[in-house]
Amino acid sequence: DQQVKQNSPSLSVQEGRISILNCDYTNSMFDYFLWYKKYPAEGPTFLISISSIKDKNEDGRFTVFLNKSAKHLSLHIVPSQPGDSAVYFCAARPPYNNNDMRFGAGTRLTVKP
Amino acid sequence: DTAVSQTPKYLVTQMGNDKSIKCEQNLGHDTMYWYKQDSKKFLKIMFSYNNKELIINETVPNRFSPKSPDKAHLNLHINSLELGDSAVYFCASSRSGGNEQFFGPGTRLTVL
């Protein structure tokens, strides 16, 4: 039972444009959401997160939006840079277990120069 | 300095063998994890250890056993390897109650 879904396996955008990566979840108990970035042959690295009490969190070029009613979150990267090319994983966590992180399958972003 | 390290990076072995993957973190975290990334690319949690106590054990075969000699290490032992065990295994660590997990580079296990 995949409780976190990233339905787009890949996304390609032009340098300088906006990248929008989407994530849906099924468990309404999730209260904390994270985005991880993964380069080939490396482990995922934390990028940005959002608590369920917020609907937006911004960090430089990266903004995460949370729509609780739709059980949907998205990551916006503006402007996109070639170095952003990586696989992006969405993750969610329930309040009753901080250690129980659920990941999506990832979206491969390619930013073309 | 590598925060979370895993050895080996690649492991190729025959069905039925027993193997171990080592993980070490130098972040002073007290919780460590093992994840399996399967062929469909999902990262699924297998185990987490906090102060030498197993917290999570998903539906993982008992052929898999985590061993934590101290807070900085969580090794993964796999007995009687099967073809379906082929995957990339990631180790991670975090502070207790922390939101962010730090991942190792992964170990690609191939069972022939």
Q: Could you give a short description of this structure?
A:
Chain A is mainly β.
Structural topology:
The complex is a heterodimer of chains A (113) and B (112).
Chain A lengths: L3 E2 L4 E5 L4 E7 L6 E7 L6 E7 L4 E4 L2 E6 L4 E6 L8 E8 L8 E2 L3 E6 L1
Parallel strand pairs in A: 2-11
Antiparallel strand pairs in A: 1-3, 3-8, 4-5, 4-9, 6-7, 7-8, 9-10, 9-11
Chain B lengths: L3 E4 L2 E4 L5 E7 L5 E7 L5 E8 L2 E5 L6 E7 L2 E6 L8 E8 L7 E2 L3 E5 L1
Parallel strand pairs in B: 2-11
Antiparallel strand pairs in B: 1-3, 3-8, 4-5, 4-9, 5-6, 7-8, 9-10, 9-11
What does this structure look like?
The complex is a heterodimer of chains A (113) and B (112). With 113 residues, chain A is mainly β. Chain A is built from no helices and eleven strands. The termini of chain A are far apart. The model of chain A has no long low-confidence stretch (mean pLDDT 94). Chain B is mainly β. Chain B contains no helices and eleven strands. Chain B has strands at residues 4-7, 10-13, 19-25, 31-37, 43-50, 53-57, 64-70, 73-78, 87-94, 102-103, 107-111. In chain B, the strands form two sheets. In chain B, strands 2, 4, 5, 6, 9, 10 and 11 form a seven-stranded mixed beta sheet that branches. In chain B, strands 1-3-8-7 form a four-stranded antiparallel beta sheet, with no helix packed on it. Chain B is globular, with a radius of gyration of 13 Å. The chains are: A mainly beta (113), B mainly beta (112). Chain A binds chain B through residues 2, 32, 34, 36, 41-46, 49, 87, 89, 91, 93, 97-106, and chain B through 4, 31, 33, 35, 40-45, 48, 50, 55-56, 90, 92, 94, 96-106.
